[in-house]
Amino acid sequence: MDRLWTDFVNSDYHDWRGGDRSEDRLGKKEWQQRFLEQWKMSASIPATPEEESVMRIFRNELQTLATRLSAGESLTDKDQKWLNGKMAEGQVIRRLNSANEGLELSLIPVQGHWQQVMAEVAADFAITVVEGDGGRIRICDNTDCRWIFYDDTRSRTQKYCDDKMCGNLMKVRRFRAKKKVAQQKE
Ligand SMILES: [Zn+2]
Question: Least C-beta-crowded within 10 Å: which of 47, 93, 117, 162?
Answer without folding.
Answer: 93
